[in-house]
Amino acid sequence: MCDEHRTDATPESSVAFRQAPARPYRPAEARRAVARAVSERCRATHTSCDEQALSDALLVASELTTNAILHGGGITDFDVCVDERDVRVSVSDRSTALPVAKEPVDRQGRWRPGGRGWPIVCRLAQDVRVTDLPAGGKCITAMVPLS
């Protein structure tokens, strides 16, 4: 597991550009929401967008939403916040179980499918926090640098 932090309260956010789209039901919808929020920030601040950083943020959003759908009982909330330095993607689901990385090979030495999403999130995000939600479930917030 990466160096995420489990906290008891919901994460705070005082970010200049915030995209609170309708809850995505597919990873593609989450990617579109992140792309829209980042491009709005770049337009509003008259700065160019780092394509690699945007690509990383899109992949993190995709992996978090996929994990919520496959392992967390579905997406219960989604939020994107963009400031001058980073993109914060928050995905909530119904499960309280922490994400885990699976070994790519089973005991018999056979390659197993899946289990790579969480390591991708941990590698691309500068910070990852797992927060217990008051009504049950969890929120995972990943901060991806924009530069």
Automatic annotation (TrEMBL):
Gene3D superfamilies: Histidine kinase-like ATPase, C-terminal domain
InterPro entries attached to this UniProt entry: Anti-sigma-factor_SerPK, HATPase_C_sf, HATPase_dom
MF-aspect GO terms: protein serine/threonine kinase activity
Transferase listed as a keyword: yes
Region span, Disordered: 1-26
Transmembrane intervals: none
Keywords: Kinase, Serine/threonine-protein kinase, Transferase
Family matches, as Pfam families: HATPase_c_2 (PF13581)
Name used for this protein in its record: ATPase
Protein source organism: Streptomyces griseorubiginosus
